[in-house]
Amino acid sequence: MSTTEVAEPGVAAPPPSRRVSGFLHRHPQLQLAGLLSAPMLWLVVAYLGALAAMFITALWTTDPFTNDVVPVLNWDNFRQLVTDPAYPRVALRSVVVAGLVTLTCAVIALPMGFFMAQVVRPRWRGWLVVAVLTPLWASYLVKVYAWRVILQSDGVLDSVLGPLGLSSPGFGLSAIVIVLTYLWLPYMILPVYAGFERMPGSYVEASADLGARPMRTFRSVMLPMVFPALVAGSIFTFSLSLGDYITAQIVGGRTQLIGNVVYTNIVLNRPFAAAVATVPVAVMVLYLIAVRRTGALDNL
Amino acid sequence: MRALRTAKVAAALAAFVLVGAACGDDGGGTSAGGKFIPPDLPAMGTLGPGEGEVNLVAWAGYVEDGSNDPAVDWVSDFEQETGCQVNVQIGNTSDEMVQLIKSGQYDAVSASGDASLRLIAAGDVEPINTSLIPNYKDVFDGLKDKPWNTVNGKNYGVPHGRGANLLMWRTDQVTPAPDSWGVVFDPNSPYKGKVTAYDSPIYIADAAVYLMATKPDLGITDPYALDDTQFNAALDLLRQQKALVGEYWSDYLKEVQAFKSGDSVVGTTWQVIANVAQGEGTKVEVTLPKEGATGWSDTWMVATKAKNKNCAYMWLNHIISPKANAAVAEYFGEAPSNKLACDETADPNHCAVFHAEDEEYFSRVHYWTTPIEQCLDGRTDVKCKNYAEWTQAWTSLRNA
Q: How many CB pairs lie under 8 A apart between chains A and B?
């Protein structure tokens, strides 16, 4: 800051910080711009910019020998995605896995959330939330490798189920669904818990007083109340599962998901990897549109 | 109003697209026409004083300064002697290494054959002046002037060491001891569901090696030079193998663990993995099957854009010096490149175990090389499959 202005005799000039705040006070629009420009810039550059760069890269090709990206626009990458049956198949497999994980998470989270919000004494609720969140404190890789040890032949699961005549599913599709369900469950339980917490307990009692059986109460009173929360949770579990490739790599056995296809191509053939990566983006956009249509997002 | 807003968003997006397009062009790339001609780059003339640091891209276990294991250190004395502080970035795959070198932030790289040619062709590495590297004269002749380190008579690096991708099996579950890759490819293999294979497109070459022995009428002479028919035959074999495979491995920890638990009992491996597994008490043995095998022969190369070339040359000289070369070869489990290193190994039999001087052994090993359109075996009447096609075929295969 220049000192010459302040040195004017007689007038006590306000300190620079005051002048800035005064200026901003007189120009509320500038104030708003200053406040929002950083997050907006982040949103536009990091999110939309990255997406745009990805779509454009998907239209480029690579030099087959040096693997340098050649910025010549064409549709070859997308044509290959459609013509080679392997790619639709892996896309479908990934969507099915994401769907199964979401469904399993919902089935577990509903009773869990209800118990936490409505049944247990209020002073225990905090502890239960902590318990649900604890797995998030451990590293992702540690958890997945732990599951590898659990699922392997003669592993923990085998020795527990052995006496019952059952065995571990081994590495493969079911292992992926189990591990992803474990990983993303907290992201489903938390919103469902919050949803149940907002539901007045008297609704359930009223339903019972009016003669509804528990199943009917669940279907007609509780489910509509927590449906928006369930949808919010499903956005997390579905998108996180759709993008995952490390779990598939570690416990997937022979199975690959769409993330693995992106991963194998990303260094050698970035344009093709970008083309593959547009598939989960498209699936998520469709999913979000479908969610919006249910109106669940309005009630969040 | 709404239309205006849409127009603004579109304009913003377009601006980013343009920026992206401007940044995306890496330049380079000279595989044009028949034979490949690397860019004409000069080698260094004289060695100057060190710059004070050197930035390396290397395989895990190639540059150890004692931070992983205090007893494993061949970097600290180099730093003291030359004053070049060594910084290392581990590359997990050849593809990753290529990408790192292209960033221009590194001085030297330990490139396998499936990376080196790509780097040379793109002008990412430059020819070296071997007279500035005194230890070069002691390198085994069998490693000098090879297609993966020398192009048109120009040397592009110093050989680091070599090894073979071996067949490993659990001795308590696989009997009799296998001596052929048939045990992992034969549809009637008794180890169905417990076979493991390397999860990389370069594994197609392993199938080609097996076909060289079992289907000679395909006429494969080089597993990295496959025309349409040969390539499809290899893929058919791999498709058939898929029914046998329990899991594919790329992470070495995963393979150690799978053999330990018995989820995998037979499959391709590296010597160092077998050593670790044996160290953990798993009953495994390895062999070089009678059909031969794929393998690696690595080369230290100097990046064209290197900022610390003098230190890079000093490092090249150091890593092939008898002591350091012996230490790294023993730690990683491969054959050293320097003849004199055999006298420096802690285990006096190391060079014998790893066949360092056994050219007959290595004549059965087909070192990783980048498959390119111009057939590496010299055929000019057909087009061979390039590595991009290998990659896509591998992805299709894994998801078929």
A: 137
Domain shared by B393 and B257, yes or no: yes
Strand intervals (E) in chain A: 61-62, 69-70
Residue-wise pLDDT tens digits, B107-142: 999 999 888 888 898 899 999 999 999 999 999 988
Q: Which of B95, B252, B395 to mutate to test the interface with A (most CBs of A within 10 A)?
A: B395
Q: What is the pTM of this model?
A: 0.77
Distance CA B212, CA B220 (A): 6
Do A216 and A115 fall within a single domain? yes
Element (H, E) at A191: helix A173-198
Residues B237 and B332 in one domain: no
Amino acid at the residue B202: I
DSSP SS3 for A177: helix
Examine residue B282 and state whether it is found in any structural domain, yes or no: no
- B60 contacts: CB under 8 Å, gap ≥ 6: B90, B92
* Dist CA A117 CA B244 (whole Å): 49
Which residues of B fall within a CB distance of 8 Å from A267?
A: 93, 95-96, 98-99
What residue numbers bound the domain in which B207 lies? 166-269+371-399
Tens-place pLDDT, residues A134-180: 999 999 999 999 999 999 888 888 888 888 888 888 889 999 999 99
* Option in B13, B27, B370 nearest A48 (CB): B13
Rounded-to-5 percentages of helix, strand, coil across chain A: 75, 0, 20
**B395 and A267: CB-CB below 8 Å?**
no
**Is the per-residue pLDDT at B34 higher than 50?**
no
Nearest neighbour of B16 by CB, restricted to A49, A89, A269: A49
At B121, the amino acid letter reads A
Distance between CA atoms of residues A66 and A64, nearest Å? 6
List, for residues A19-68, the tens digit of each pLDDT value: 888 888 888 888 888 888 888 888 888 889 999 999 999 999 887 767 77
Determine the distance in angstroms separating the CA of A166 from the nearest CA of chain B, rounded to an integer.
17
Q: Which of A60, A65, A168 would best serve as a mutation to test chain B binding (most B beta carbons within 10 A)?
A: A65
Nearest residue of A to residue B386, measured between CA atoms: A64
**A62 contacts in B (CB within 8 Å)?**
388
Cβ distance B203 to B185 under 8 Å?
no
Q: Which residues of B332-361 are buried (b: 16+ CB within 10 A; e: fewer)?
A: bbbbbbbbbbbebbeeeebbeebbbeeeee
**B58 and B158 housed in the same domain:** yes
Domain count of the fold of chain B: 2
B198 → chain A, closest CA residue: A254
Residue B243 to residue B239: CA distance in whole angstroms: 7
B62 near B332, Cβ under 8 Å?
A: yes
A108: containing domain: 85-299
Locus of tokens 């893929």: B235
Min distance B169 CA to chain A CA atoms (Å): 17
Pair A92, A216 in one domain = yes
pLDDT over 80 (residue B92): no
Q: How far is A145 from chain B (nearest CA, A)?
A: 9
Q: A residues 170-209 near B, CB within 8 Å?
A: 170-171
Q: Please report, rounded to a whole number, the percentage of residues in chain A having pLDDT higher than 70.
A: 94
Q: Closest chain A residue to B242 measured between Cα atoms? A: A254
How far does the CA of residue A105 sit from the closest CA of chain B (Å)? 26
